[in-house]
Amino acid sequence: MSTELKTGLRRKYRVQVTVAIYREGSLSYKSEILSPAFYSKRTEARDHIRQEIRERLMHSRFFRSSRLDYDLVRYTEEATCNTYLRYTIQDTEI
What is the pLDDT of residues 37-49, one digit of tens each? Predict the structure, then answer.
C-alpha cells in the first residue's frame, strides 16, 4: 500500500471474545468472536468490556475466573465441563 493511502487510515478498536470449554481439565472447544462494533478509543472498548463483564456477573451464572488467562468462568454442577470467557481488544486501521 502506498504511503499516501496509509496516512488516510484511522486506528479503530474492536472487542474480541474467546469462548473455551474444558472437559475434565482438557480443552475441548475454543472459538473467537469479533464484535461488529468499532471504537475510536481504546478506553471506549475497555468500558464496553467492563460493562459486559458486570452484566454477565449480575444476570448469568458466570463468575470471575481464577485462571489468569480468562476473565469469567461458568461451572457445571459436576465441574467436569466448564466454560471460560476472555475479552481482548483488537486494533485495526480503517
Answer: 999 999 999 999 9
Per DSSP, what are the bridge partners of residue 86?
18
Question: What size, in residues, is the chain?
Answer: 94
pTM, two decimals, is: 0.84
Computed from CA positions of residues 53, 87, 19, 92, in that sequence, does the dihedral angle turn out positive or negative? positive
**Cell numbers given for 40:** 475510536
Under 8 Å between Cβ of 49 and 64: no
What average pLDDT values come out for the chain (94 residues) when binned by 10 residues? 58 96 93 95 97 97 95 86 96 86
Report the side by side order of strands in the sheet with 81-93.
Answer: 26-34, 11-23, 81-93, 72-74, 63-64
| Burial (CB count within 10 angstroms: exposed 0-12, middle 13-18, buried 19+), residue 71 | buried
